[in-house]
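Intended use. Records like the one below are meant for learning the mapping from a protein sequence to its folded structure. Do not use them to infer anything beyond what is encoded.
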Amino acid sequence: MRAQKEKGVEGVYLTGDQQSQLSLSFGPGALHSTHGNHAECPNRDIFRLSNDTNHGFNEVGPEWHNDGSFERSVFGHVVYHIIKAPGGPGNTSFAHLGKAFDALSPDLQKRYSRCASVNSNSGVVHPMVHQHYLSGRTSLYLHTGMTGSIIERVEEQKEGEKLSGIKAWNHDEMNELFCSFTELLDRENISYSHKWLEGDVIIIDNLAVAHKAMPGAHKASSGLRILHRTTIKGSMPLDPASELNFPNHIDTGRPCPFKERDAVWVEGYVGFRWGDYKSRSTPH
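Structure written out for the chain above:
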């Protein structure tokens, strides 16, 4: 890395074009850039995050998630590069979703394997448990900030009735899930909290690792923080197991199609609100 002053930010880091070129080394070798572009983004493929809105988008990702969960083919890999590291709090934590599955009780492993999340932003349906397409490792998958519903196969599907035998979880069930899922990923033997130093690059397998911005990452009092993210195209759709007979997409903009009166059904960029959500930053 060399000394740079791209977009007026002095430091030793990769330029936007250099990071984009590095990113092409992973997955199928193609970027998948769906994000908005801040005025200071050096190119279309850089998602620029900052605790100062003059330098990037703020209040993004305070809950455990995987990038691109609104896509049927979720981003395969993600590259994070800090070009300005804060002196104070501003870590990013990363959690191993295979270890998280292994830590569940056998009963929860079985139940979650019958479940899927419905993305509140796009309606795409992803399994809560999947076998990683390369490693075969059984792993959890849940975006805790952009889920509009959790559905579960409780009975066999009746012929000609597409959504029969599927239950949508209620508020208490989902709240317990999201709180316990967060507690699980927060464990020190499952996640790692990274203290950023200027120029750091972290590359993750986005189907094996979840992440979240830690407290302080969105606060100006931590010192200027600027993070560049690039996202790499997924290799295949992350669809529910065929034996579940779940649709790959359900329109969340329409009324809830499930019979439970108290079923959670949320549409929008921000999904189901759980736990003490008002104490966390609001995703934008």
